[in-house]
Amino acid sequence: MHNPCTPCLDKRWRTLCTVIIALVTLSGCSSQVEDTRPGQPVKTRQMAFKDMLRVFEPMGTMLRTDKYDAERFALLAGQLIGKRDAPWPLFGPDTHYPPTKAKATVWQEQDRFNRERQVFLAATDELMAAAQRKDKEDASRAYFKVYDLCQSCHKHFKEK
Fold first, then answer.
1. CATH code of residue 71
2. How many domains is the chain built from?
3. Mean pLDDT in the chain?
4. DSSP readout, the chain?
5. Is residue 9 part of a domain?
6. What is the CA radius of gyration of the chain?
7. Chain segment 54-84, per-residue pLDDT in tens
8. What are phi and psi of 37, to 5 degrees?
9. By residue range, what is the domain housing residue 65?
């Protein structure tokens, strides 16, 4: 006996298989470029910035949601200080290649890039000092100064 739904199921099955094959094929075409250079300086640099962000973002969340915890804020500020130096040595002269998101201006305007790095380091020192004083307003001012410096540097030196 012939089942009248068999052609429909076959057509759906073929469509489903076609979609799955297309997705598997496209997954191999990922836009993510792998850093294949020895030591993976670009990937390592990106990971170092992400590590800093993982301790910096919770500080801002604390301030923006009015859930300031002075002890935790100070702990996070200390962790930021411990991570802040990691990415900078990885901006070597031969590290402007995919998958970098750094603009060529990092290497073309090295004096400016280094000045902004020094200002960032000084601002994170101020953030640590404010965190240790455990005054929310002081911590907030210092946090948003660092935040603004990050945004300014990204605007000038990082691809969107």
1. 1.20.120.10
2. 1
3. 88
4. ---TTHHHHHHHHHHHHHHHHHHHHHHTT-SPPP--STT-HHHHHHHHHHHHHHHHHHHHHHHHTT---HHHHHHHHHHHHHHTTSSGGG--TT--STT--B-THHHHTHHHHHHHHHHHHHHHHHHHHHHHHT-HHHHHHHHHHHHHHHHHHHHHHB--
5. no
6. 24
7. 999 999 999 999 999 999 999 999 999 999 9
8. -75, 150
9. 40-157
